[in-house]
Specification:
Blueprint: H1 2-24, H2 32-59, H3 61-65, H4 73-94, H5 103-113, H6 120-135, H7 143-160, H8 165-184, H9 187-198, H10 204-225, H11 251-280, H12 289-308, H13 323-330, H14 343-369, H15 377-397, H16 406-422, H17 425-436, H18 442-459, H19 466-471, H20 479-487, E1 500-502, H21 507-517, E2 522-525, E3 531-535, H22 537-545, H23 555-558, E4 566-567, H24 572-580, E5 586-590, E6 598-603, H25 604-617
Helix pairs in contact: 2-6, 2-7, 2-8, 2-10, 4-6, 4-12, 5-7, 6-7, 7-8, 8-9, 8-10, 9-10, 9-17, 11-14, 11-15, 11-16, 11-18, 12-14, 13-15, 14-15, 15-16, 16-17, 16-18, 17-18
Amino acid sequence: MRPLRVTLRSLMLARSLTNRLRTRLGLDREWWLVLVAGGIGIVMGTAAIGFILPIRWLERLPEFLGKEYAGLSHILLLVAPCVGALLTACVFWIFPTNFRGHGVTRVMLAVNREQSNLPIRLGIRHWLASTCTIGSGGSAGPEGPIVTIGATVGSNISRWLKGDGASAATLLGCGSAAGLAAVFNAPLAAIFFTMEVILRDFSLRTFTPIVIASVVSAATAQMWLGSSEPLFGVGIEFFENKSESFTIGQTLFYVAFGLLTSLIAVAFIRMLPLSEKLFARIPVPKLLRPLMGAVLLGCLGAAWSLVHKSDLVDYPPFFGAGYAATRELLDRTLYEPALRGASLEMLWIAGGICIALLLKMIATCLTLGSGGAGGLFAPSLLLGAMSGGAFGMILHAAGFTSAPPPTHLALVGMAAMLASTTHAPLTGVLLVYELTRSYSIMLPLMLTAVIAALASRVLYRDSIYTAELASLGIRLGGMSDLTVLRRLRVSNLPLDQAITVSADDELSKVIGISAEHGVDDFVVLHEDGTYRGMVTSNDLRQALVNRQVISLLSVDEVTRDDLPVVFENETLDVALDRFSRHDVERLTVLSRDTPAQVKGLISRASLMNRYQRELEIS
């Protein structure tokens, strides 16, 4: 009997410890997220292979054509993007969407405004359209689409499992991180990109499932490939001999380079929406705009082919994702000791790199600005490598022999440019670190990436992703603020009773009700009972200044129709944003029914009180 009691006590103790551990990790009610995250990792590790390998094969097609088709290279470079754009337009026609932004921006919008709901057709649309665009030479990256595909998978799995808003956001993040981890074989960078950029949430409850999904996804991709080489084709062995030491004397060079990178990044961020506006003015159907961009890109590629003159059908460095160009730029031939005395030759090479950098920016704007499919991650990496290589060569040509080698600056430039364009320095640092596996590079990586990100934010408030959201009138706040406010909805707050009046009522009636019952704000309705506007306490005070005209005024003449409404299922960050745009104490809350019914009034004070209580709890 005694051994049985001991066994029972041991089981109860183990259960108690397990429950405490789950509670401490924030998994006491949602432990199932960990299991689902592992499943998402397996799915996305496999899906990433199916998505990336066809694009790699299409990009390497010129190598397979060989010398026999070298004379037709300029024709192929002109025609291929146009064919890809037409196929992309067909995909867009079959899978339409009202959102005009790119993949990562669409995912951010879903997290912040749509309860992390993404339709399954969005993932299919980005998969097919991105393959057509990038595979035919469009200047874009596959990482944005794979993030969107993964987020769509996570969102729909949450919907099938009937998860709430918090678990939906977590599983969406698991999918996006898993896709990125498989592509780069860089789970750390994928984790922090998801938490820095997409979810903007570093809580342990979110962190744990995302880590599991990323690690499982990277391991699955390696299992299918049979190697640890990233899918875009740069392996660890590539960086083995690039281990020259970094010295404290090089700090100023890295600081200067960080500032330079921020200037290039801001120019790139601002060029993209400008190109979208220019293409929007072309009097052609929206679905044919990618073809206009492809024609211009093809002409650019054909001109490059005629000037370049090669025995092979070469892929222009500004075509496609640009990983082949990045690898070539990072090659040891970029900086040879024999060139240290050849200043003029180094300047010529640096000038060529700068021209290629400008062409890459233009090509990306032509592809994505016209409406083509793809991401901005890969172009940012190539722009960073180019800017670092050119800057290093110019320094050495100018006689700064103590400056870092151009290869090192190219590596650091990848992290700095990514940090500048996305405002995610951790992601940039960890990505390059996971590619090089060299700890000695961490100091200049962190220094340059942080300086570049800070300078970029000073020069331009928005990142390359939030700029698209800002154009839609959506602003994202701080990470902790959003985490708290996104958990609550307007329906979670106590609403004040709405006193409704008709637009045809006399203003004197409203003033009488206000004086008798102490009511400050009134909701004005049309004759059919639909919402018309509000009469606020400020409006009443202004009317009381001229009492002699009160009897001559109707409610409709003092009604404010410029005030926004809040729907009962919207999150509190949306409500707070509406309050911040107008100097009022209350806003009308409507239901989502058709026609919408007035549910009450939400006050600024009740919102802030609930916000403070949630901050104390979390």
